[in-house]
Amino acid sequence: xxxxxxxxxxxxxxxxxxxxxxxTLGISATALLSIILAMVLxxxxxxxxxxxxxxxxxxxxxxxxxxxxxxHKHPLTSxxxxxxxxxxxxxxxxxxxxxxxxxxxxxxxxxxxxxxxxTFVLGGMVAGSVGVFASIIKGFFAFSIPTMVPLVAVFxxxxxxxxxxxxxxxxxxxxxxxxxxxxxxxxIYDFLAAKHEKIGLIASLKAEIQxxxxxxxxxxxxxxxxxxxVAERTVELRSVNKKLRMEIDDRTEAEMALRESEEKYRELAxxxxxxxxxxxxxxxxxFANRNTTKLLGFSKDDIKxxxxxxxxxxxxxxxxxxxxxxxxxxxxKLDGFEAMACSLDxxxxxxxxxxxxxxxxxxxxGIRGIIIDLAEKKRAEExxxxxxQKLQRxxxxxxxxxxxxxxxxxxxxxxxxxxxxxxxxxxxxxxxxTLRKPILVMQESGKKAAAIVQDLLTxxxxxxxxxxxxxxxxxxxxxxxxxxxxxxxxxxxxxxxDVSLEPDLLYVAGSDVHLMKTxxxxxxxxxxxxxxxxxxxxxxNNCFLDRPFKGYSDIQAGEYVVLTVRDNGTGIxxxxxxxxxxxxxxxxxxxxxxxxxxxxxxxxxxxxxxxYIDVDSIEGQGTRFSLYFPVTRKGIPAIVDDDKDTVSAYQxxxxxxxxxxxxxxxRQIASDxxxxxxxxxxxxxxxxxxxxxxxxxxxxxxxLDMIMDPGMDGLDTFKQILEIHPDQKAVIASGxxxxxxxxxxxxxxxxPYIKKPYTWNTLGQAVRAALxxxx
Length: 775
Prior knowledge:
The protein has 775 residues and is α/β, with parallel strands linked by helices. The chain is built from 24 helices and 19 strands. Strand 13 and strand 14 (622-630) form a beta hairpin.
C-alpha cells in the first residue's frame, strides 16, 4: 500500500501535466474557430453581439495563455496537483460556457445553414476535446457539457420536426463522445500506470546490476586464484572448445533447418482456406494465418497485441470450448467440434474445430488447430434438404395421383350402374310405391360418389390443354351465381363473402371448368375453416415480378393474374401446411365436410396451368391462398365496340414514343399495345441505350421501366435524359408499388406512374396524360 501512493501521485502529476501541455493546442483552436465563426455569423445576427462574443473568447484565451506561461515556468509538484487541476477545469468550463453562449445569443433563427454551421463547429470542438482533454475526464466534462447542452436545449425548444431530429442526433453524438472520452481516459490511465510500474522495475534492475557488479569484483578475485589451475588445463579446454565449436555448427545448421521448416509451415498455413492457429497455455494466439483476417477481421497487429482463441467464437461456443481447454492441454485431441465463430463486426457463422496439443520438453505449452468454415456446407445441406423435400412431395403427389386415377377409373365403371339404373327403376314404379324413397337415397349417394370419382379424375388428368383465352373475373362471377355456391352458403349461414376484382384483369389461357372447380374448392375450404362463421375475401389483381419470389412454391419472374382467397378461420398448423395439397389429407370429418381431394385438385389445376401457389396461415387467425396464373397475350379478343369512346380518348396520332425496358417480352407487349393505339414506337433495352438514342433524336414521350438490371435504373436514366432534353415528358413503369425512387423521378418532372403488367387501358391513359401535361 505504501508503494501504491507515490505511484498514484505520479500518475496524477502526469495526467495534469498532459492536460497542461495539450491545453495550448485547445486555446489555439478556440481562438481560430471563434474568429472563423464570427466571420460566418457576422451579418446574419446583430454585429455587436458577434463582436462582444468574439472579444470575450479572445480575452479568455489570452488569460489562459498567460496561465500556460506561468505553468511552464513553474514545474508541477505533488503539492500543487489539486490546485492546478482545479484551475484548468475552471478555465475549460469558462471556455465551454462561452461556446455554449453561441446558440443562445448568436443563434440565427432564420438561417438553417448557419444553424448547421454552428452545430458542426460546436460538435467539432467537442470531438476534438476528446483527444485533448480526456486525460482528466472532469476537464473534458467541464468543457463539453456547457458547450453542447445550450445547443440541444435550443433545438428542442424550437419544436419542429427538423430541430427535434437535430437535437436528438446531438444527444446521441454527445453520448458517443462521452463514451469515447471515458474509454480514452481509461487507456491513458492504464498507460501511465504501466509506465510507472516499468520505472519501478528499472530501479530494481539498476539495484540488481549494482549487486552483480559487486559480485563480479568478487569473482575477479576468485578468477585470479584459479588462473593457475586454468593454465594447467588449457590443453584440455582447447580440445573441449573444438568439440563445442562442432556442436555449435551442428546446432546452427539445425536452427537454419528449423527456420526453413517454420517458414514452409507458415507458407502452407497461409495458403489454406481455413483458419490455422496456435496458442500458448492460456489460450492466447501465438500464430494465426492470413485467413484469420479474411474470415474474422483480426489483423497481424491484433495478434501481436494479444488475442485469445476464445475471442474467435461466440459467447456460448467460447464457454463450451473453454470447458474443454484444460483437457486439450493435457493431451486430448479435438476432432470435429462444431461451434459458432464470431467476427470483429459481429457476424456469426458455423465452424468445425480440430486441435492437437503443442508439446515442448515433454510438457504441453499450448494447442495447435484448424477452424473450418461450415457456412457454405450448411447452406448446401439446407438447399439439398429443401430440394429433396420438394422432390419427395412431388413424387408423393404423382404416386397418389396415379393410384387415385386407377381407383377412379374402376369406380367410374362400377358407379355407372348405380347412378343410371335408379332412373329406369323410378320410371317403372308407381308414385305411391314405398321403394321410391330408398331408391332416391341410393341414387343421391351414387351421385355423391360419382362427384368424388370426378375429383379423382380431375386430379389425375395432367397436361390440361391451355388454348382457350379466359378472364378469371368472369369465372369467379359465374361461380358466385352458381347453385353450388348458394348451396355452400346455406350450409354455412355465418359465412360472408367479400369480392374485389381487378377491373382491367389480364387474360389467362386454360380450362374454365378446372379453374371454376379450383375457385369452388378454395371458397368451400375457407368456409369449412370457419365453423363459427366469418369473412371470405376473394381478390384478383394483375402482378408483374421482376425477380423470382420465394413463396410456398418458387415463383418465377413474369406477368401473372393472381387469385387470392383469404379467411379468418382456424388456420393450418405448420406441421400440416406441407401436406395440405396431398390427396386424402384432411382435418375435416370424412363424409361430412370433405373428402380430402379438394386442395389436391387445386394443386393439380395450378400445375397444369403452369402456375404457382403461395400459402400463409396462422393458427387461430386464418389462411391465405394466392394462386399465380401466367398471363397470355395471344388470342386476346379485340377491343369491343362498347369501348370505342374510351379507345378514342387514348388514341394517338403518330406521336413518337421511346420505350425503355430491360425485358424483351415486356418491350414487345407494350410496343404492340401502343402501336395498336396509333403511336410510333422505338424500343431500348437499357437506360444507357436510351440516353445514346436521345443524344441524336427527340421523342414526344419516354416510357421508363424503373428497375433495370444491370445498368442504370429508371431514375438515373431520367436524370441523364433531362441533361439532354430538360423538357422531356416521361411515364414511369414498375412491377412494384410506388417507391421513393419513383417519387423522386416524378418530382423531377416525370409524368404518370403505372404499375406493371401493361394493359392498353393503363398504358394509353398514362401516355395521353403525359402528352396533355397532366401528372
